[in-house]
Write a structure and sequence with these properties.
The protein is of the alpha/beta class and 765 residues long. It is built from 24 helices and 31 strands. The chain has six domains: 109 residues, 3-Layer(aba) Sandwich (GIY-YIG endonuclease), CATH 3.40.1440.60; 73 residues, no CATH class; 181 residues, P-loop containing nucleotide triphosphate hydrolases (Rossmann fold); 180 residues, P-loop containing nucleotide triphosphate hydrolases (Rossmann fold), CATH 3.40.50.300; 56 residues, no CATH class; 92 residues, 2-Layer Sandwich (Alpha-Beta Plaits), CATH 3.30.70. The protein is globular and about 95 Å long. The mean pLDDT is 91. It binds adenosine-5'-diphosphate (ADP) and zinc ion (2 copies). The site of adenosine-5'-diphosphate has 15 residues, from helix 10.
């Protein structure tokens, strides 16, 4: 019997396709391919992709002609086995193609379709002395020859100085040589390339290329400088360690400014001493230079930062470094850093664990980085510490029901008082004609006092732009997005109206297209308009605005923060960006301009999120020197949730919300899966939505709600419908997911629904 000795590789393609694809391995590479390596493979009629090997075997697939892989791109796997398992888990749990996980996981330099645009190491040119001139007599005669070429002579002298060649020759030890980069040499000797080339032509100097690291290597501090923990912090630190003896997961519930970060630092130090690695996850927006510098002061070169605003090349190099035998011991990073290779993970810290930006919304994989981190840690035998001042309901529920350990830190560092929060009724002040634009008289008075004392103010308004909407005074016409079902936001600086969903933008019409009236008025207040108001009321104050529009670049964002930090600005106006983990010294007043926009969000989590946002922004007040003041403006001062914010009463919020969620059957009392459908034609979409709803009901019965049109029912010219599936705990989730995949498949295969986009959002936030 002749055995078929052909070897095959199942690979994952960087395309939103489910499953793996099998390729035959040509003899030339068959022996070298390993799971986790990249192969280029042909796919479709012309394209080639770099695919990841997920499995090697000798089973020839039936029923089709197997194509051959083209090239092996790696000598060693760029994915470790645990990562492939995490990819598989994400694809399975979040009901999305594994190819989509591949796309999200790797920096683009590692997944390009052809090598041309892929990652290239950065090369630099270095100078060396040719062997012919590597001797004392030769060099002496050279300088005699160069007498009439003073510029070449000067360059050579500089080279000898920089390279330490003379010493190396004298002591006959090439190890004394210092590498000299061409650019640096030219700069140092103020010479031109022509002069340099003349020496190359003489056969004195030559060039060689060398890969340079984009990662800047810093000196490791010789001694780690750890702050001494306060008594309360020390207690929390010890309790966390105790919890970790019996729990894999622990929540550190600590009020703002209690020193959670200091506790993390001590834990990281402890894990490092034991020779294991740490992943420190943060929401994008909190990952500031402020925090990174704080950590670098302690951990220096042990720390790597992985950020979506870093260049792709830098991210590739961090990736490669983590695979090397000298990986960073600590990675501080955003959502996507859960995909980095870790060889020896000991601890994951998820700071601000309640943040919804840990959940990726679009495109797939719609994963929650906190939850993936928990799974990753479990797979690798690591512990997870969640930290926040305002836990998500799910996390706190898990603590209360013994799934996670809980440690509390309710004392601010140096016993600074939590801010005093005062609610002011907008409706009442409006009736009494006491409002100035979006400001109540109470807030204005406090702002004035703060400015007079040389203190700072933060104003929080959860809307960017000048005004959320424009309206014709006469006929009520409102400019709408042509692609989405939303009214356009007016941006005064650009004099444009803009869609915040699809990016559509157009100049504001001079008159109403309906009735030709030129009297168009703006409705509501965005951050831009608030900035204008302040400039009018406090012309002497220096105002900065922080929202998506002013922070397109990382530099702009950092500048706004550092200007405020160093008191170069007095008032900071912003969207939820100003609510996050920032640490300022001189802020005495925080104004929440309109709590109602948050409280009225059409979502079962609106109170939870409003509480979190308001408590977080309140925490920015009075951090060090004295108690701060928070003015909370609302039309509904009597809502229990408003009282809970005022009293900083998380437990009461938690109890109220749990009761409601239990009654109406929402997480944490069940699992939610949203099923979205999108289509260009509304009638086709309606047909699909109703058919799918009825099929789902046959399978899942009363667990299905909808179809509904979401609050924004059309985005980028696609109509949207949504079905909700509520699954009780204890149900066989594997089975549920299989059924959902089958149903999705069934409709996507039908001619009339082929062009529909059907996808899932598992555990939506
Ligand atoms: P949190 O993360 O809980 O908001 P931080 O860790 O940022 O609190 O601490 C708030 C401020 O207090 C920071 O400026 C921090 O440097 C300082 N701080 C907290 N604990 C200590 C400590 N043990 N020693 C010195 N400074 C501390
Ligand atoms: Zn009109
Ligand atoms: Zn739009």
């Amino acid at each position: 019997m002749i055995l078929d000795s052909m070897l095959y590789a199942d690979v994952i393609l960087p395309l939103p396709l489910s499953g793996t694809f099998t390729y035959a391995l040509p003899d030339a590479i068959a022996g070298k391919v390993q799971v986790g390596c990249r192969l280029t493979v042909p796919f479709g009629s012309r394209k080639t992709y770099s695919a990841i090997v997920s499995c090697l075997h000798d089973r020839k697939p039936d029923g089709y002609v197997v194509k051959e892989a083209l090239q092996l791109l790696d000598d060693y796997p760029i994915l470790l086995p645990a990562q492939l398992r995490i990819w598989q888990w994400i694809s399975d749990y979040y009901l999305c193609p594994i190819g989509a996980v591949y796309k999200a996981a790797l920096p683009s330099g590692l997944k390009e379709e052809d090598d041309e645009s892929g990652y290239k190491p950065k090369l630099a040119q270095y100078v060396s002395l040719t062997d012919e001139y590597y001797s004392e007599p030769k060099l002496l005669s050279l300088f005699v020859e160069l007498k009439r070429s003073p510029k070449q002579c000067a360059l050579m002298l500089k080279y000898l100085d920089m390279s330490k060649v003379s010493a190396a020759i004298k002591l006959n030890n090439r190890q004394l040589l210092v590498e000299v980069e061409k650019q640096e040499l030219l700069k140092a000797s103020d010479a031109s390339t022509t002069i340099f080339n003349a020496l190359v032509e003489r056969g004195v100097l030559t060039l060689y290329e060398k890969k340079v690291d984009r990662l800047v290597h810093e000196e490791l501090p010789t001694e780690m400088v750890l702050h001494q923990l306060s008594n309360a912090q020390q207690r929390a630190f010890e309790q966390i360690n105790t919890q970790f003896q019996t729990n894999d997961v622990c929540l550190l519930h600590g009020v703002t400014s209690s020193g959670k970060t200091e506790v993390y630092i001590h834990l990281i130090n402890q894990v490092l001493q034991s020779g294991r690695q740490v992943l420190y996850l943060l929401p994008e927006i909190v990952l500031t230079t402020q925090l990174v510098n704080r950590l670098k002061r302690v951990f220096g070169g042990h720390l790597g930062v992985y950020h979506s605003k870093y260049s792709d090349a830098e991210r590739v190099e961090i990736w490669q470094k983590q695979l090397s035998d000298k990986p960073y011991d600590i990675i501080v990073g955003v959502r996507s850093s859960i995909f980095l290779p870790f060889k020896n993970l000991g601890l994951v810290i998820v700071d601000e664990e309640h943040e919804t930006s840990f959940k990726q919304q679009d495109p797939a994989p719609r994963y929650h980085a906190r939850n993936v981190a928990l799974v990753l840690a479990r797979m690798m035998g690591a512990k997870t510490l969640l930290g926040t001042a305002t836990p998500s309901l799910e996390t706190y529920y898990n603590c209360k029901h013994g799934k996670y350990g809980l440690v509390e830190l309710f004392e601010r560092y140096q016993q600074v008082n939590l801010p005093e929060i005062q609610t002011v009724n907008i409706a009442e002040e409006r009736r009494k004609k006491m409002m100035s634009g979006p400001f109540t008289s109470v807030l204005l008075a406090d702002m004035r006092k703060a400015l007079d004392n040389g203190e700072q103010v933060i104003l929080f308004q959860n809307r960017r732009g000048f005004a959320p909407s424009v309206e014709c005074h006469t006929c009520g016409w409102v400019p709408k997005c042509p692609n989405c079902d939303v009214s356009l936001t007016y941006h005064k600086r650009l004099n444009h109206v803009t869609c915040h969903y699809c990016g559509f933008s157009a100049p504001l019409a001079a008159k109403c297209p309906n009735c030709e009236d030129t009297n168009l008025s703006t409705i509501g207040y965005g951050t831009e308009r608030i900035e204008d108001f302040i400039k009018e009321i406090f012309p002497e104050a220096r105002v900065a605005r922080m929202d998506l529009d002013t922070t397109r670049s990382r530099q702009a964002y950092e500048k706004i923060l550092s200007d405020f930090q160093h008191a170069r600005t007095d008032i900071l106006v912003g969207t939820q960006m100003v609510t996050k983990g920032l640490d300022f010294d001189r802020v005495s007043v925080v104004g929440i301009l309109n709590a109602d926009t948050m409280l009225n969000m059409p979502d079962f989590r609106s109170y939870e999120h409003a509480f979190q946002m308001m408590s977080q922004v309140a925490g920015r007040a009075g951090r060090r020197s004295k108690q701060g003041r928070v003015i909370l403006q609302t039309k509904t001062p009597d809502l229990p949730v408003v009282h809970q914010v005022v009293r900083n009463d998380y437990l009461s919020l938690y109890n109220d919300q749990c009761e409601e969620r239990q009654t109406f059957h929402y997480p944490p009392f069940c699992r939610l899966i949203y099923i979205y459908m999108k289509h260009r034609y509304e009638s086709t979409l309606n047909g699909l939505a109703y058919e799918m709803a009825s099929l789902l009901r046959q399978v899942f019965g009363q667990r299905v709600l909808g179809p509904d049109t979401p609050p924004v029912g059309r985005v980028q010219s696609l109509f949207i419908r949504k079905l909700v599936l509520k699954v009780e705990f204890g149900a066989n989730m594997g089975e549920v997911r299989n059924r959902l995949r089958q149903i999705q498949d069934y409709y996507q295969k039908q001619d009339k629904y082929k062009s529909a986009n059907i996808y899932f959002d598992v555990d939506p936030v």
